[in-house]
Amino acid sequence: MPDSESNLVSSHVDVINGTSVLSEMKISDEKGSVKKRAVTQIGKNGYPDSIYINAAKIFQGIRTEKSTGRILVRYGDKSESPMVAFKDEHSRRVSYELAFNALKYQDLLEEILLDSKVYPCYSIPDELTSLLVVMLYDLQDRKFQKRKIFAEEELVAEVQEIGHYLYRYKTKLAAALARCRIKYDALSIEYFVPETISKQEQRTSSLPVCFWINTFKIGLEDVIRDLEMKGFTKVDSVSDFEHYTYAVDQHCHDVLVFPSSLREELLNLDLFVECKLLLQDKSRSLAVHSAQALLSEGGDIIMAHIGSHLTIAHMSVLTNDSSSRIFVCGVKSSAKEEELRNSFSHMGCKNIWLLHEDFIELQPTDSRLEKAKVILLLPQCSGLGAGNPMELILSEHRDAGLLRDLFQGFVSEDKLSILAERQLNELIHALKFNKVQGIVYCTCSIYPEENELVVKKALESGVEGDKVRPYRLIPSIFSSCSDSESSTEMFFKMEPSEISSGCFLAVLEREKDTSKKVSAKDILASAAAKGLLDGIVEEKPKEEVKKQKVKQRRRKVTASDSKPKAAKLLHHHTGADVKAEVPVSKAANKIQEKHVCPKKPTNKIQEKHVCPTKAASDAPEKTVPGKKAASHTPQKTVPGKKAASNIQQKNVHQTKAASNIQQKNVHQTKAASNIQQKNVHQTKAASNTSTSKAASNVSMAKEASSTSTSKAASNTQQKNVPRTDSRVELKKSVNPD
User: Fold this and answer.
1) What number of CA atoms fall less than 13 Å from residue 376's CA on the CB side?
2) How far apart are CA 101 and CA 317, in angstroms?
3) Cα 626 to Cα 434, 658, 659, 735, distances in angstroms
4) d(Cα 365, Cα 368) in Å, to the nearest integer?
5) Would the N or C end of the chain have less CB density within 10 A of its end CB?
6) For residue 599, what is the DSSP state?
7) Is 314 exposed, middle or buried (0-12, 13-18, 19+ CB in 10 A)?
8) For residue 495, what are the CA distances in angstroms to 134, 163, 257, 443?
9) Cα(334)–Cα(720) distance, rounded to whole angstroms?
10) Helices 170-184 and 106-115 sit at what angle, rounded to 10 degrees?
């Protein structure tokens, strides 16, 4: 192509009009829309010097190396990975994005430098060639406008020198870009992007975005209400998406899915800025839900890697209702610890414990981890199945080499072997924790060497030993609700597509102890606790059945038993006059004691009813005139044993007080007579009587009296057998006329 002044001018005008501007990389900072807008504004005017330096270091490590015969641009030695220090998360994100853009257009940028004769430049050493390429991309992205110098910016001499050098030759650089487009007949600058990257970016741009709900700050119903007020409509699935729509994820109940076109708008919502909705790849939500499903009450969780602070926070939210603690490994620096604590505090997380040791350095017998029941492994992997590899690197501090692998479209065998060996060692180490009952292993890889083969090798290693139950693969909790063909397998897999990112998930659980028999009662109780009985009545424990039988027996006894009529009559007549009347059963108790020891006549009433004495034979006659023995009967039943001895003395010496309560003595004589009659019946059917104390005591009295029987006592009992005759005699004794 002839190098004419007119071509240079037309090319320069074309560049200024923006037809050669590379596709704008929109920056979405997860920390809020305010910072996002600030970053975009800064990008139009360039970046601080420190960002160019960091981007050049990253690019130096991931750039594509040409074969010896094709090397035209020299970058210096990259055997040692340069140390990159970021001012904050914002500068880190921008630096990586700038470096990746330089990688995507490396071939084009090198051709521009060579065609414009700007390179080689003897004043710029090979070690600064990476900085030259990175700043050339930014100059082209700014439409070859001059970079703004920020007031608080710390200037770097190398950046200032190269910036001035490129701007001095901006017309030649613009003309070289125009010639490249004409040479390759490129309608758009995107023509120079490798096909693998182009497909990846196209898939990323169409991939639905996932937000999980931080229930520490807001509930699902409140989120739905807030979204409806902003004009969003809930639909059943991703296939029903239109513009302002969303759906609840089919696997995770606390994850909302939105069309990718709403990403920037969602990042400006208060729900996102206030950490109520948090943007994260769905594969991480699948991992934490799987771990939470294995967790028993009161058990702790070990997160083997820091990964994203959002993954740790999500795990904390899911275990909010329990007393579980979350142990996070590998927090090396105090600055990182403080950063994480501030993030967790802002999101409302409190049950997180940060450990300085790497997971592989932890001892299985560590006292801090004695209650750990679940281990969540999210190892570093190739990550080619991730929906947004750049976001994966930024959020989980992954190796920037993923950008080179993404650019190439594959991972080298050497690197894949190193990753698989590291993953296997970590999984085998997890198997050594004897008190742990479950392990979740999750990657974003598409290679079996990092997925199925790692899990199978670990299970075959036998590191658990013979003293504990071995692990076995179990289906994940998502298998039943997955449309994937792999849902029937033990491994849960999602292939990368335009509607989902790639994910591999394996759940390991210790085998059940078959030596212990589980009772039907425990099985029913467990099923009822999980809500699986569906109306089936659980069998009542034997103790409850026994209690019910005892209650029923007591009801029958109380229903069949009735209070003796004489006692009722006695209570009716004496209840108002005697405030502390002793129950008939107690009176019977005293009668029993006297029957056992008949030789000691402490009570004349006993002698009259039982012992073959003269007083007993004369008892009916004495009740007629209401003499001493009959008159003092009620006093015996009221005060107890002491009163009984007093009654005996009063029976010896008749007083006027005895005659004053003669009517009461008559009624109580009836009660005593009825008690005698009851004694006779109870000797025949003691088992059928009431369970009351009076009945049992009377029967004992009968047995005691039988040991000291005489003809007079037996005759007295036979005399009292007919209930009707006794009542007639009593009536006669009351009314002798």
Assistant:
1) 28
2) 36
3) 91, 9, 7, 11
4) 9
5) C
6) T
7) buried
8) 34, 44, 18, 12
9) 101
10) 120
- pLDDT tens-place string over residues 375-398: 999 999 999 899 888 888 888 877
Alpha carbon distance 351, 669 (integer Å): 80
Q: Which amino acid is at 726?
A: S
Instruction: Point out which residues pair with 544 in neighbouring strands.
Output: none
Q: Edge to edge, what strands does the sheet with 245-248 contain?
A: 233-234, 245-248, 255-258, 209-213, 277-279
Whether residue 88 contacts residue 428, with contact meaning beta carbons closer than 8 Å, is answered with no
d(CA 28, CA 125): 35
Tell me the two tokens of residue 197.
């990257």
The tokens describing 409, both together, are 């479209």
**C-alpha triplet 216, 219, 223: angle, nearest 5°:** 120
Cα(33)–Cα(264) distance, integer angstroms: 8
Residues in the chain: 737
Tell me how far CA of residue 628 lies from CA of 5, 236, 604, in angstroms.
153, 99, 10
Q: How far apart are CA 627 and CA 655, in angstroms?
A: 10
Q: Which amino acid is at 653?
A: H
Per the listing, tokens 């900072």 go with 29
Radius of gyration in angstroms for the set of CA atoms belonging to the chain, rounded to a whole number: 49
**Token pair of 507 as six digits:** 């759940």
Q: Which residues are catalytic?
A: 444
Task: Determine whether 15 is exposed, middle or buried from the number of CB atoms within 10 Å of its CB (0-12, 13-18, 19+).
Answer: buried
Segment holding 584, helix H or strand E: helix 584-596
More confident residue, 552 or 563: 552
Of 144, 171, 112, nearest to 16 by C-alpha is 144
Q: Name the strand (E) or helix (H) holding 104.
A: helix 89-104
Find all residues with CB under 8 Å of 120, minimum gap 6, and list them. none
Which one, of 109, 22, 112, 23, lies nearest residue 59 by Cα? 109
Region for 231 from its dihedrals, namely left if φ exceeds 0, alpha if ψ lies in -120 to 50, beta otherwise = left
Task: State how far the Cα of 135 lies from the Cα of 5, in Å rounded to an integer.
Answer: 26
pLDDT at 14: 43
Cβ atoms of 141 and 22 within 8 Å: the answer is yes
Tens digit of each residue's pLDDT (9 = 90 or more) over 401-434: 888 888 888 899 999 999 999 999 999 999 999 9
Residue by residue, DSSP assigns 68-98 as GGG--S-----SSPPP---SSHHHHHHHHHH
Tokens representing residue 439 in the block: 């392990």
Q: What is the mean pLDDT of residues 501-508?
A: 94
Q: Which amino acid is located at 284 in the chain? A: R
Provide the total of helices (H) and of strands (E) in the chain, helices listed first: 34, 13
Spatial separation of the C-alpha atoms in residues 687 and 584, rounded to whole Å: 20
List of E strands, 114-183: none
Amino acid at 371: K
